[in-house]
Amino acid sequence: MIRAIITDIEGTTTDIRFVHQVLFPYARQRLADFLRHEHEQPDVAAALAALRTEIDRPQASVEALIEQLFTYMDNDVKSTALKVLQGIIWRTGYENGDFRGHLYPDVAPQLEAWKAEGLQLCVYSSGSVDAQKLLFGYSDAGDVTPLFSGYFDTRVGAKRETESYQNIAEQLILPPQDLLFLSDIRQELDAARLAGWHTCQLIRDDADELSDHLQVNRFDQIALETFL
Ligand SMILES: CSCCC(=O)C(=O)COP(=O)(O)O
Ligand SMILES: [Mg+2]
């Protein structure tokens, strides 16, 4: 029986275009100036220290790190340090009302229904936990963070690695067969399934003909009794 649903964000709860055409450019345009001015701020300094460790260059200057971060952004590398920094920059955008977190209209009502049925709801995204809380806290549907009891990011591992799903199950103290992962990306679902989880693929745009996961277009098409 499904006892917890863990959802991806980009392409699942949220239009990919919001992430790639609103969030990513917002952070990209501000990143260099932000780091030049704020690199000594404790949370920024910690992310930069993590980046130096990530690239194994303990002496890298702020300018060298900026260059590295631009390379990551160009290639959509899911670096934990980049994701933390993007989240810090996005906070200003959300708080100023420059944008709100996009949610497909079927998402919040179905999350509410599952919550009312007693299911535990969590998020697993490459975006940092703080960035996840911002997107759901300042969403089109208002603050929906009270619906979630757990948030996971790349600190548990990458989304295409089976071990990441084992780590999440351990943290939730639930057996894998009680967990359902929702994502638009087949390779993420493959990894979750190898960890023993149930899976469901959201097809918001193009069909994925290579997938053998159960596919739906909207959250209200997910019937939990299907997952035995
Ligand atoms: C917290 S919203 C921004 C998501 C993000 O930064 C990203 O790279 C998308 O990752 P996902 O794992 O949700 O596909
Ligand atoms: Mg996704």
From TrEMBL:
Pathway(s) annotated for this protein in UniProt: Amino-acid biosynthesis; L-methionine biosynthesis via salvage pathway; L-methionine from S-methyl-5-thio-alpha-D-ribose 1-phosphate: step 4/6; Amino-acid biosynthesis; L-methionine biosynthesis via salvage pathway; L-methionine from S-methyl-5-thio-alpha-D-ribose 1-phosphate: step 3/6
Superkingdom of the source species: Bacteria
Keyword Iron-sulfur: no
Reaction catalysed by this enzyme: 5-methylsulfanyl-2,3-dioxopentyl phosphate + H2O = 1,2-dihydroxy-5-(methylsulfanyl)pent-1-en-3-one + phosphate
Cofactor(s) the protein needs: Mg(2+)
Keyword hit for Magnesium: yes
SUPFAM superfamilies: HAD-like
Binding note for cofactor: Binds 1 Mg(2+) ion per subunit.
Keywords: Amino-acid biosynthesis, Hydrolase, Magnesium, Metal-binding, Methionine biosynthesis
Gene3D superfamilies reported for this sequence: 1.10.720.60, HAD superfamily/HAD-like
One GO molecular-function entry: acireductone synthase activity
InterPro entries on file: Enolase-ppase_E1, HAD-like_sf, HAD-SF_hydro_IA, HAD_sf
Coiled coil (UniProt feature): none
CDD domains: HAD_EP (cd01629)
EC number in record: 3.1.3.77
Top EC class of this enzyme: hydrolase
Family: Belongs to the HAD-like hydrolase superfamily. MasA/MtnC family.
Physiological role: Bifunctional enzyme that catalyzes the enolization of 2,3-diketo-5-methylthiopentyl-1-phosphate (DK-MTP-1-P) into the intermediate 2-hydroxy-3-keto-5-methylthiopentenyl-1-phosphate (HK-MTPenyl-1-P), which is then dephosphorylated to form the acireductone 1,2-dihydroxy-3-keto-5-methylthiopentene (DHK-MTPene).
Subunit structure: Monomer.
Protein name, per record: Enolase-phosphatase E1
Naturally occurring in which organism (per UniProt): Rahnella victoriana
